[in-house]
Amino acid sequence: MAKKRPQTRATRPQLTDGEIPVVGAREPCPCGSGRRYKACHGRAAAHAVTELVHRPFEGLPGECDWVALRELVPAATVELPLKDGLPEDVPSVTLATVLPMAWPALRRDDGSVLLGLQNDTASGDISRDLADTLQRALTAEPGTPVQARRAPADGPRLQDLLDAEGTFEPVVHSGFEFWIPDTENATPEVTASLERANAAAIPTVKLAGVDAAYWCETPEKNHLRWVMPHPEEQLLDALARLHAAGRSSLGEGTRLVGSFRAHGLTVPVWDLPSGVGADDVEKPAAEFAERLTAALASDAPLTPEERRARGGLTNRQVTLS
Prior knowledge:
The chain is an alpha+beta fold. It has helices at about 40-50, 65-70, 125-140, 160, 190-200, 230-245, 280-295, 305-315, and strands spanning about 75-80, 95, 105, 115, 145, 170, 205, 215, 220-225, 255-260, 265-270, 315-320. It is globular. Residues about 1-15 have low confidence and may be disordered.
C-alpha cells in the first residue's frame, strides 16, 4: 500500500471585516472561512439592508410633510438645500412625489435634479435609498434618468446630505405638468405617463394655518388627513379625550373616523361633507389644534368613556408603512 501523504491546508490571508469584498451570496466568503458569503460576512450586510427603519425621515426638517408626500399627496414638489451646497453644474435639487415612468430620479437637460419620493425601495431604510439615488443623480449626464439599485449598507442617508437648518416647504400641484418644462419636445412615453398620472390624481390642498394637514376631494366625500409628530400612545389618548367629550370634529357634518400609521408617525383622518373645501376647514383645524394641545398636556387616567373612545380609534387604525 502506498503511504498516504499528509494533507496540508494552504494558509489563507486573514482579512478584517473592513476588507471583505462583496461577492455572490452562494460564493465562498472571501474571508477564508470556507462558508458561503450569505452565511458568513454577508449575513450582517443583508441584515443592514433589510432592517426596517421605523422613522426614516426623523431629524429632517418637515418630517411630517415628508411622510405626507410619501404616502398621501399625489403631486407636490419641494426645493431641497444640500448641506455642502449645490455643485456648480447643478442649478437646483427638487423633491417630487412622483416622476414620469416612475423614475427614481432625473437629471434634466439644464443640469437640475428631480428626486422621486414615491418609489419602491430595495432596503428597509428609505432615507438611505433616496440618498444613494440623489448622489448618483448629481453626477449623472444631463438629460438622463437615474435607475433603481440597492444602496450600499454603509452609504449616507438623507440626514447626511441635506441641510438640517434648511426649510421644507411643499408646493402642492393640481397635476404633474411640472415634469415637463418643454411639452413640445416630450417623448410619447413621457406624455402618456403624464396623462395617466393626471387622470389618477386626487385633488389635494395643503392647509396654511396648521402643519402637515392635507385636504383632499374624493367622489363620495372629502377628507382631511393630518400627519402629527406626537408619540402615538400620547396622541391616541388625547384624541380619545376629545372624542369622548364631543370635541373631535372640525365642524357640522365632519367626523374623526380613525388614523393611519406611516413611517413612525400617526395620521388622524376626518370625513368631511362634499361641500366642505380646504378653505372651510382652515379655522376649525386651527381651533382643533388648540384643543389637542390642551388634551396632550393632560396625564390624568382615561375615564371609561375615554377608554371606549380610544378603543374605537385604535380599531380603525390602518398601517401604511
